[in-house]
Amino acid sequence: MGVPLLDLKAQYLELKDELDATVFDVMSNAAFIGGPKVKALEDQIAAYCGTEYAVACGNGTDALFLIMAALGIHKGDEVITTPFTFFATIEAIAHVGAIPVFVDIEPGTYNMDVAQLEAAITDRTKAIMPVHIFGQCVDMDPLLEIAERHNLVVVEDACQAIGATYKGKMAGSLARAAAFSFFPSKNLGCAGDGGIITTDDADLAARARKLAQHGTSKKYYHDAFGTNSRLDSLQAAILSVKLPHLDRWNSERRAAAAVYDELLADTVLELPVVREYGEAVYHLYIVKAESAEMADKVMAALKDAGIGTALYYPLCLHEQEALNTLDGYVKPSLPAAESCNARTFALPAFPGITREQQDEVVAVVRAALS
Q1: Which of 7, 22, 193, 295 could connect to 237 by a Cys-Cys bridge, CB 3.0–4.6 Å?
Q2: Residue 223: C-alpha distances to residues 211, 218, 219, 287, 331 (Å)
Q3: Which stretches of the chain drop beneath a pLDDT of 70?
Q4: What local confidence, expressed as pLDDT, does residue 34 receive?
């Protein structure tokens, strides 16, 4: 019958009346940029994450960039991060003139291996940007202890992790600031691009807000060179409708993951590892094949059966050609991350997926592995 990797149409149909009404309200009032819808969403996200402030912006990439810029990270600085995530993480670092420095990952969680972090710090290091990949928080306590000892700022890339927890605290409230993405495929997604910054730092929030609006806090008076990164009211309104359902959707993702954990436990695939310090939200359910050839074979079988899948990721960030254009960049050797190249791929685990659909996915996977 086929199974999509993510079923956004079903999500829309579930909330159709509310979503249609809020879109109609925005269109009827013609308040498209800023205004009460955006302010309401900022307040709701801050309350959800447990932070004092939330600053909406155009997308998750901009959220990361605006934090970097607001912190004064600039040319010649180094920012430590992970090689195993989407390119936007290092794009934000590069766009302020800084150099990304990579720390290898933990097998199973695919998060930064904090045990290797301190060795990457130099006298040029200004910040650490852990990424809560696939919806599971990095082990933040030892990371924050290292950062404090070296007087470094920590910024969470929580773009895939809204709703995830670490020792009872929400992703987005664990460091100086955090960035979230509302890209449609995210656990909380809008109908286009969108992003938000969360923080308890009033000055950082104010600077980020100003930079997102052409460097102005008073119309037509500019005391900084900023950019144009505003979340429009239509997207904010849609997100406000969806937010009350997020915890349930994340719970359904965890339930789907548990089914795969059981049904695939005896296969040669490496299944995701979840640490006991928090709840993961399974932005993606990722399995690792023994080789790129095996991954290709299983993925081809899934696609032939009409089942959605994709590589996450085909090539680590530290191996990307674009980094060769950065002055001072030296490609490291990161064996744990490199072992994932073209071998880690997603199985459908969206909210509302049925046991019948998961059984179909597993049947195809097992047949391809046999």
Answers
A1: 22
A2: 10, 10, 11, 49, 38
A3: 1
A4: 86
167 and 211 part of one domain: yes
* Strand ranges for 64-206 from DSSP E: 78-81, 99-102, 125-128, 153-157, 165-166, 169-170, 177-181, 195-199
Q: Which helix (H) or strand (E) holds 345?
A: strand 344-347
Pull the structure tokens for residue 171.
Answer: 């992703």
Shared-domain flag, residues 57 and 172 = yes
Residues 123 and 231 in one domain: yes
In the listed set 244, 261, 293, which residue is the last one of a domain according to the structure?
A: 244
User: How far are the Cα atoms of 263, 279, 350 from residue 360, in angstroms, in the given order?
Assistant: 11, 27, 15
Which has the closest alpha carbon to 145: 125, 174, 122, 184? Answer: 174
- List the CATH number of the domain containing 217: 3.40.640.10
Domain total for the chain? 2
Tokens representing residue 312 in the block: 């996450």
pTM for the whole structure: 0.97
